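Duplicate of #3305? Posting structure anyway:
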């Protein structure tokens, strides 16, 4: 189960990096293809990047769904807990468990409804066709305009992302019952800042020590000079 610890980060990093690269190539292709360069312009005009926008939209939809699961795991979702924090510790804990269970219940319902939708929207046909089973009158389902992908593949982000989100709600709930602590994210914290400041602080400390040593040596030399003069 260790591979689930950072599953969202891997998926979000891959999707965000891929979408950024595709957008950059599409924009660069559109710009450079207007240059009247022999041979090169004809080759660039022959390339079709009409699918780039649709693919990036799909990638951002998947990114949003798995980003929501990441938010549950790390505690970055915005919440209004003014009333909850005014309650006694035992009562507050019960309300927090209820809220986490309600989140798990809601996302589980979305998972079931989303799974049913994509199953009836062409996934049923695709699975039976892949296994060599009789498809009968099962609908193949619609496809996307540019990529011509089955739409059930795109909409799979809803049940898969919701299922992972449900798992994170249950994970946080079990952890809270055991430890009494919730994941907390400091919005003012930036990863890597402390690591970069530590060497700088160390250098400042070394500089202060050197300056103090130099002052001490200067003071001792001045004292010895006065004694020699006397």
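Output from current build:
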């Amino acid at each position: 189960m260790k591979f689930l610890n950072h599953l969202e980060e891997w998926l979000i990093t891959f999707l965000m990096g891929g979408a950024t690269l595709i957008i950059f190539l599409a924009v660069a292709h559109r710009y450079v293809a207007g240059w009247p360069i022999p041979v090169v312009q004809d080759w660039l005009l022959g390339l079709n990047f009409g699918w780039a926008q649709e693919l990036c939209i799909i990638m951002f939809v998947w990114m949003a769904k798995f980003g929501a699961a990441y938010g549950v795991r790390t505690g970055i979702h915005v919440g209004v807990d003014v009333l909850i924090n005014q309650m006694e510790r035992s009562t507050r804990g019960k309300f927090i468990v209820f809220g986490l269970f309600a989140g798990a219940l809601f996302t589980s319902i979305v998972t079931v409804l989303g799974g049913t939708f994509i199953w009836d929207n062409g996934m049923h046909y695709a699975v039976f066709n892949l296994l060599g089973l009789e498809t009968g009158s099962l609908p193949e389902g619609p496809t996307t305009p540019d990529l011509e992908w089955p739409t059930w593949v795109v909409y799979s982000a809803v049940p898969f992302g919701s299922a992972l989100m449900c798992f994170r709600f249950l994970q946080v709930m079990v952890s809270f019952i055991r430890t009494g602590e919730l994941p907390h994210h400091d919005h003012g914290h930036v990863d890597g800042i402390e690591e970069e400041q530590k060497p700088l602080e160390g250098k400042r400390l070394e500089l202060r020590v050197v300056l103090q040593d130099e002052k001490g040596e200067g003071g001792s030399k001045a004292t010895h000079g006065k004694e020699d003069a006397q």
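Confirmed duplicate; merging threads. The helical segments are 7-32, 40-46, 52-74, 82-85, 89-130, 151-155, 157-179, 193-229. Residues 2-190 form one domain.
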